[in-house]
Amino acid sequence: MTKTSRGLAGLIGFLLVWELFSRSGAVREQYLPPASTVLAELFGLLGDSSFVLEVVATVLAWAIALGISILIAVPLGLLLGSVRGVRVATRALVEFLRPIPSVALIPLALLLIGAGPETKIVLAVYAAVWPILFNTIYALDEIDPVMIDTARSFGLSRARTMFTVALPNAAPFVLTGVRMSAATALILVVSTEFIAGGGVGIGNFVLDASTGAGRMDLVLAGTLVAGIIGWLINEALEQLHRRGLRWSTVGTEDA
């Protein structure tokens, strides 16, 4: 059985268990609608232009946040990973900031930035920077010193060695960090939309559906859309890793 077949079988099994459990009477359908009802609402929402705009707003904020995170974390990771003095000097600050949950910063962000799209982008950037940063630093630690010494023996400058030797070898680790950050950024964007409200996005749609008429079918349909987006993003990044960095995946792919 292929990886795709196993995944499809698992998904069908999950939906079947959900359907049977919801219709068993163990919980009121008002609180947990059957999977068939939620899927019907989901397909209906995909034809609703206003909901499509909510999805576009979420995806756009996610893309901006992830792009900014990469632009910040990769150069900073290369600096901290290659210059030991800077890494030691900033270690305390990094270890202080890293554990702070981005969701806990939502009230502060609302006061300083307001309830616009900038808030969810800033919070998503804060959360998404760390996986990329630490994977980049770790990648530089794992580079064979012989490769660096060889490059320098041929007269390559520090900067050229960084871009021609270190960065290509760090690329698989960096992309793994990007995959982790992509999921984190999406979670933060949707969570901020849900908690802060007052804007557009999937999280705001779920908030309205849950506090208005209490439509759990719409709540779950919106949640499924967020999950599908996350799955598509991860699949796209996996394909990028396999095709763009094929040499790093030889012998590691599933049958």
Describe the structure.
Helices cover 79% and strands 0% of the residues. It has one domain (37-248): MetI-like fold (Orthogonal Bundle). The protein has ten helices and no strands. It is mainly α and 255 residues long. The protein has helices at 3-23, 35-46, 49-82, 84-97, 106-112, 117-142, 145-153, 158-196, 202-211, 216-244. The protein is globular and about 70 Å long. Helix 3 packs across helix 4, helix 8 (158-196) packs parallel to helix 9 (202-211) and helix 9 (202-211) runs antiparallel to helix 10. Residues 55-237 form the ABC transmembrane type-1 domain. It is found in: Cell membrane. Keywords: Cell membrane, Membrane, Transmembrane, Transmembrane helix, Transport.
What labels describe this entry?
mainly alpha; MetI-like fold; 255 residues; globular; 10 helices; disordered C terminus
CATH fold title: MetI-like fold
CA(first)-CA(last) distance = 9 Å
Rg (CA only): 22 Å
CATH H level, superfamily name: MetI-like
- CATH architecture label name: Orthogonal Bundle
N-to-C series of helices and strands: HHHHHHHHHH
Structural class: mainly alpha
Number of domains: 1
Question: What is the typical, i.e. mean, pLDDT?
Answer: 85
Content of β-strand: under 5%
Number of strands: 0
Uncertain regions: pLDDT < 50 for 5+ in a row?
A: 250-255
The tally of helices reads 10
- Report the major sheet: none
Dominant shape: globular
Helix content: over 70%
Q: What is the top-level CATH class?
A: Mainly Alpha
Protein name: ABC transporter permease subunit
Organism: Saccharopolyspora montiporae
GO cellular component, one term: plasma membrane
Membrane topology: Multi-pass membrane protein
